[in-house]
Design goal:
It is built from 8 helices and 31 strands. With about 575 residues, the protein is α+β, with helices and mostly antiparallel strands.
């Protein structure tokens, strides 16, 4: 659209032309979309018409959008950029000056002040030395020429069932399948379009006071015997930015998942930064709860790999901070989180150069009884830690004795991208699918057919991914649910970390259908890092909210929770 070019190249009045151009674009697209089907069909060839119908009715994540829908999305994005420019100009004239950026320490997330950006130009992605660390971490974890080969691994176990039987077991949504299905219970319009479920969103905790960073939340139902509260959320938090030495774990509890207690620090003895909490309640063994109603909390603690302090081009100082991960540790609580056990180490950073990290829930495999906790090795930048020649890879920590011991399994890697923040879910055929965040615009997937003991190579899926964490869980029907950012583009000013969605799959993750649009987000915000749990006929999804690091919006971040109601699963008669 013409306005879009003005935003990128025009002067201070470019925003007005951009805004008008974007409005005209939207009105034009809306007129086309509201015209009769006959007119629309004349403007589309059969392939485009098919794509339009699929995008409009099926709402599948992987479906290519038709030209008219793409036009509307482009126009909406243009308006967002124009409004962004208006806000910046207003802020600039309100203060009547441009800050020079002295030597003050950063009080929020790092980055340049937008008052220093020339108005009328498209907002640029920050330089590598002004990024929040993702670029340098990504580069450190992509295979180079000097990487040593990994030890030979046994081949992945093959499925014991035939392809036809596995397909039948996975395809819960088949008309001939009588198993209960949430997919079949979804409300649809007369023309077959899936109607999006409206969610109810609440704050778990808002940033403020001496807390300016909250991230990586995890949620779990508490054992009934432990506390009157039914739910617990834990996340990593700090007074400034990610990875500083005071980074610790905070927690909150709730009776109903809507109203949450005031956040408090998890009383864990720590020496360095704490990362990536994962809550887990061990399953019952016979008629007894293993551990007597305990809740387990896995996390990681930095051991070394401290990135030095640095000064940005605008004068701001970034304090020393640790690279993500370290030793994987475990604490337990039997009183609802009031007290916790002494930490035990379940995996050490033995080589000193490659921290170990976790991010998503433990899977309890039905057939083997194995407990499977996805993890990955994330190499630190060379200036933070001796750069090991051992390649980064992903895998799983597997316990065959109900958590008494844990053993690393799998060495999953793909040249040219990292595979991190794996999320595992058991499928209805008994296999475990593990989905990975990547830098290639799509999720990658690896499978295990033996309870996590061995893993296939990772291959791309159809699900978009803007290089950000997702979370997959198994539903009680055997179907899968996925919380994710519906964008493949991490180069936008918000890194594509908007459009937070929930999708379901009734065929083991081959196809996904969006069922709830939690938050749209904007160029101003990061809406990201979801973790989901099923509670009867509803899903609870916790996630992080962060103001864009360049905007210094104040205390706008924190942890939110979305409640997504589900209709009772339909059980159809087999044909």
């Amino acid at each position: 659209p013409p306005g879009r070019r003005v935003v990128r190249k025009g002067g201070e009045l470019g925003w007005a032309t951009a805004f008008m151009g974007a409005l005209l674009t939207v009105f034009g697209a809306a007129h086309l979309l509201t015209s009769s089907e006959t007119i629309a069909e004349r403007s589309l060839n059969p392939q485009e018409l098919t794509a339009l119908h699929r995008a409009h009715h099926a709402r599948r994540v992987h479906t290519a959008r038709a030209p008219l829908l793409s036009l509307v999305e482009e126009a909406v994005e243009t308006i967002e950029e124009a409004v962004e420019a208006v806000d910046i100009i207003t802020h600039h004239h309100h203060h009547n000056h441009v800050e020079e950026g002295g030597g003050a320490d950063v009080q929020g997330q790092e980055g340049e002040d937008l008052d220093d950006v020339v108005i009328g130009k498209r907002l640029q992605m920050p330089d590598e030395d002004e990024e929040d660390g993702d670029i340098e971490l990504r580069q450190a974890n992509q295979d180079g020429e000097d990487v040593e080969p990994l030890p030979e691994q046994p081949p992945a176990a093959l499925p014991k069932l035939s392809k036809e039987v596995r397909k039948q077991l996975l395809d819960v949504c088949s008309r001939n399948d009588s198993r209960p299905s949430y997919f079949k219970s979804l409300s649809r319009s007369p023309r077959g379009k899936v109607e999006q479920i409206k969610s109810r969103i609440h704050w778990v905790s808002r940033d403020g006071g001496n807390i300016r960073y909250s991230h990586m939340s995890t949620i779990s139902r508490l054992p009934a015997s432990a506390t009157p509260n039914r739910w617990m959320v834990v996340w990593q938090t700090s007074s400034t930015i990610e990875g500083v030495s005071d980074q610790h774990l905070s927690m909150s509890t709730s009776v109903d998942g809507a109203k949450w207690d005031k956040a408090r620090q998890v009383p864990i003895r720590q020496k360095q930064a704490l990362w990536s909490p994962v809550l887990f309640v061990p399953p019952q063994q016979g008629d007894k709860q293993l551990g007597g109603g305990e809740v387990w909390l896995f996390y990681t603690e930095s051991t070394n790999c401290l990135r030095p302090a640095r000064k940005l081009n605008n004068g701001y100082k970034i304090p020393p901070r640790y690279a993500p991960g370290g030793d994987v540790k475990l604490v337990k609580s039997s009183d609802g989180g009031h007290t916790w056990s002494t930490p035990s180490v379940i995996m050490t950073q033995t080589d000193g150069a490659v921290p170990k990290v976790i991010a998503n829930q433990v899977v309890v495999h039905r057939a083997t009884g194995n407990w499977v906790l996805p993890y990955w090795r994330e190499k630190a930048p060379p200036e933070a830690c001796k750069n090991s020649k051992t390649p980064a890879f992903a895998g799983a920590l597997v316990s065959t004795d109900r958590g008494r011991s844990w053993h690393p399994k799998g060495q999953i890697r793909v040249s040219g991208t990292w595979l991190i923040e794996g999320t595992a879910a058991e499928r209805s055929d008994g296999s475990i699918a593990c989905l990975f965040r990547t830098s290639r615009g799509k999720l990658y997937q690896s499978l295990s057919f033996d309870g996590g003991e061995s893993w296939t190579g990772a291959s791309p899926t159809s699900v978009p991914n803007p290089d950000s964490k997702v979370n997959a869980i198994s539903l009680t029907t055997g179907e899968l649910a996925l919380a994710f950012n519906d964008s493949p583009d991490s180069t936008k000013i918000n890194k594509g970390r908007a459009r937070l969605r929930v999708a379901v799959s009734c065929d083991g993750g081959q196809r996904w259908v969006t069922i709830s649009e939690l938050e749209e987000g904007s160029l101003r915000m990061y809406i990201h890092y979801p973790t989901a749990v099923q509670d009867g006929d509803r899903l609870l999804v916790v996630y992080s909210v962060m103001g864009h690091p360049h905007l210094h919006l104040g205390d706008v971040g924190g942890i939110k929770i979305a409640e997504v109601p589900l209709q009772q699963p339909i059980q159809s008669d087999a044909a």
